[in-house]
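ugh ok fine here u go
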Amino acid sequence: MIRFIGSLPHDCIVAFSGGVDSVAIADFLIRGKKKVELAFFNHGTTASAAGEEFAQKFANERGVRLHIGRITRSKNASESQEEYWRQQRYQFLFAHTKPVVTAHHLDDAVESWIFNSLHGKPHVIPYSNRNVVRPFLITPKSELISWCQRKNLSWVEDASNADVAYMRNLIRHRIVPESLKVNPGLRTVVKKMYLRNSDETNNS
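structure:
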């Protein structure tokens, strides 16, 4: 079951990568009769080129508008590759006047909490940042995969997501599994951080 916090905007843009998470959320909102547009950011990689082609096909099949963002500057020496891409991506998303809904989910929240904790600043991903909202932070990734499988939806896989040279992937593939051995209820711990001050709304 896909669960969300807060209220879902009726007229919104979905941050769409073509991965299973964003495909599930875009389809969920479209089936929920929301007025949806898509925003795809091309990072200038081979995977992004394939993702843009998939996003265009997805948008065309559903008759929704697709916004495409691209790299606008060179990477600074002080930035990691991940920071550089994130800065460029959010610059693109912040430029929209409509609410932008992301597909960030509970597993993302757990990874971010671990990352921030290891840097001495333990906090979870905020629900919102300017016009960007993240309503699905209490839904585990497994539910998004299940949604796509039940609805016979296709998606694209970015091979770089398995590369542990990127800090996010190292945490996802190495640290999270070990952390779950220490505390199998880690996802519940993080989920409660969001539910303390929010009413949970369900949909399926």
